[in-house]
Amino acid sequence: MRVVIAEDDALLREGLVLLLAAEGIEVLDAVDNAADLLAVVSAKAPDALIVDVRLPPDFRDEGLRAAIEARRMRPGLPVLVLSSYVEDTYASALLSEGGVGVGYLLKERVGKVQSFLDALHRVAGGGTAIDPEVIAQLLVRRRAGDPLHALTAREREVLALMAEGLSNTDLSERLVISEGAVNKHIRNIFAKLGLQPSDSGHRRVLAVLAYLRA
Amino acid sequence: MNVLTATRNGARFLMLGSGTALLALPLFWLVVCVTLLSLAGIGLPLISPVTRLVRRLSGWQRRRLGMPAPPYLPLEGPLPTRVRAAVGDPATPREVLWLLAHGLTGIVLGFLALGLPLAGLNAATLPLWWRLTPGSPPSVLGYAVDSWPLALTGPFVAVGYLGVACLVLPTAAGLSERLSRSLLKPLGRVRLAQQVAMLTAARASALEAHAQELRRIERTLHDGTQNRLVAVVMHLGMLERALAAAPESTRQMAGRAQEAASDALVNLRDAIRAIHPPVLTEHGLDGALAALAARSPVPCTVETADFPRLPAAVEAAAYFTAAEALTNVAKHSHAGKAVVRVYLDGGLLTIEIEDDGVGGAQGGTGSGLTGIDHRAAAFGGRSTLTSPPGGPTVLKVELPCGL
């Protein structure tokens, strides 16, 4: 996999390059601003971008906007956005652009190297990686009589992980249960929430996220 | 002695006043000319330089009288703005009137202040020099002085002059001063308006300074501390991977260090959010409130009208008010839904949080409402709570924006 990194903090940028190189991921370029990112995206053909939300000059959401712009230049280009804090509204901005190959994680998730690499590969493969904190924010807001209340604790857990973008295999590994058990939980969740049971994979994630954001 | 000092001071005041009066009268006619030229349509560019001169001369007189400068409209910007400022300033007509009044009286009184002492001196020294004048004899009070007896009356006449000066000059100086003061002091309503404007500006700049400070702290924590901690977490993660072959205990140490740094990051994020929520900086008050509403356990809608970005401190206060109110709603109201309304009216930002819960809410120690009260008060605003038993509960907080 060949990635481009946009991160303005030199220590973090170099650390990321080091980390990815050690894991056998080729870093085509590492830039510190949005304009350079877009130049690299149009010149080279990266398989994925890793972008900090805040970039110079204003340190607001230049990175996020550059990521969306890059996906206009190369439709479907996988983008993993890193941020110092997460807001479900920002996740919505990314997901509303189609939601294929999109990730939105807290920066410090990088420290859990294996799950960070999993997320990166998932996004590069057209999947989704949404930070658990975003899902937690989405799960807080529930009205009385919400079908979510009918879920068991385990089913809520499965739902949250599914919303993060994990596959059935990931789920069974994470929860240390069989894939058959995972499937059963998912069927129950979809039935309780009144969602169409869709095939495993990306559309399922989007269905769950759409439900949570509604 | 007292009378003599007052007379001397009065004479000096009037003599100096005649100086400004000599300038005031031509300047008055200049103003008249420029006014006529402006009515003819060609004098407009001259209005603001002439007004500047008028203000400068009035300024001299004010300084002499120890009066503060009035709140002039600044003579800056494009021509129409400058003309409006010059003509529209309530001080302008009064200063022009002062030019005329002071110009006319100042010159006369100045002559008096100079002439009476000179005439007195002239008369007092008459016996010394009356014989020395070539040609016709000198005259005092209309009499030709041509004999010693007449010449020796000179000092007595001088005492008369002194008496007149003592009688006239202090009073004249007082009248002249009162005339200047009454025309050059700002009207009462202007003074009040000036104070309001000054206080508003002071509040705005205080709020802006506060906002900049908040942003600076947030930026420092964000770009400095937070990124450093992320780097620590990241490198510990890499270390953990590199230690694959190391003993389990070593890897555990790396893992614990990483957990500690991660906890620090969570704490830091909460602290930054409490100081100044980043979502406010990036998405403005309405965006931040929408995010807040989305996270509210009680379903919540936000109603905002379009308004400009407000001072960051006010936005933050409004945000925290809504956040605390929604927390209260979730805790106590048993409401099915809540509405946050925000609108700006004449520099006053109003935040209204309404829920359809059980009502009967009371402010008081320990309730979140106290904090909301204090925050509103700190901004010179106020909060009102209406919560009849059975609801609905409406909390209304008004915050002046310094706009």
Description:
The complex is a heterodimer of chains A (214) and B (403). By secondary structure, chain A is α/β, with parallel strands linked by helices. Chain A has two domains: 2-134, 3-Layer(aba) Sandwich (Rossmann fold), CATH 3.40.50; 142-213, Winged helix-like DNA-binding domain superfamily/Winged helix DNA-binding domain (Arc Repressor Mutant, subunit A), CATH 1.10.10.10. Chain A is built from ten helices and six strands. In chain A, strand 3, helix 3 and strand 4 form a beta-alpha-beta unit. The model of chain A has no long low-confidence stretch (mean pLDDT 87). With 403 residues, chain B is of the alpha+beta class. Chain B has three domains: 2-184, no CATH class; 197-275; 283-400, Histidine kinase-like ATPase, C-terminal domain (Heat Shock Protein 90). A five-stranded mixed sheet of chain B has the order 3-4-5-7-6, with helices on one face. In chain B, helix 1 (2-39) packs across helix 4 and helix 2 (44-65) packs across helix 3. Classes of the chains: A alpha/beta (214), B alpha+beta (403). The interface between A and B is large, with 31 and 41 residues.
